[in-house]
Amino acid sequence: MVASRKLLFPIDDTEHTLNAFKYFLDKFRLDDDHVILCHVVKGISVSNAAEREKLLDEAMQKSKKDHEKLAEKYRLEAKDIERLTLSFELVFGKPGESIVQFAKEEKVEAIVMGSRDLGTFARALNSSVSNYVVHHADLPTVIIPRKQTAEAKQA
């Protein structure tokens, strides 16, 4: 019998990430997995101190509302799967750094995520979130490329 795994799956509101999640559910998920779906929201910068608090509060409320909609979309995708535990977390910060830090804090066994395949230029600039996570996380990281997510979309 395989013990349950605690995995981190970073999410956003793109179709590609949802398709990567579908691929994960179809090809990698094991019974009794606990998957933390983590939505990272970039912080906003405001130079005017008087406006900062108001804008931050508005941004926080919008982010929470968007996160709930996103969580519901992923819940629906997995609704028919038994023996799967999903939890949802909203994190503020730089995506790559926040994912790596959150994985460490939550003591997950692995990170599973989609890759947008930004191309040679973006890779040369090292600007991909998945690239950052692969090179900075101290645990196994599974990257589901765009090709596989296209297959999941067709299934």
Report on this structure.
The relative contact order is 0.22. The protein has 155 residues and is α/β, with parallel strands linked by helices. Strand 2, helix 2 (49-77) and strand 3 (84-92) form a beta-alpha-beta unit. It has a single domain (6-145), classed as HUPs (Rossmann fold), CATH 3.40.50.620. The protein has a 5-stranded parallel β-sheet with strand order 3-2-1-4-5, sandwiched between helices. Mean pLDDT is 87; it is low at 122-126. The chain has helices at residues 15-27, 49-77, 95-106, 120-124, 129-136, 146-154, and strands at 6-11, 33-41, 84-92, 110-114, 141-144. 49% of the residues lie in helices and 21% in strands.
Topology diagram in text:
Blueprint: E1 6-11, H1 15-27, E2 33-41, H2 49-77, E3 84-92, H3 95-106, E4 110-114, H4 120-124, H5 129-136, E5 141-144, H6 146-154
Parallel strand pairs: 1-2, 1-4, 2-3, 4-5
Helix pairs in contact: 1-6, 3-5
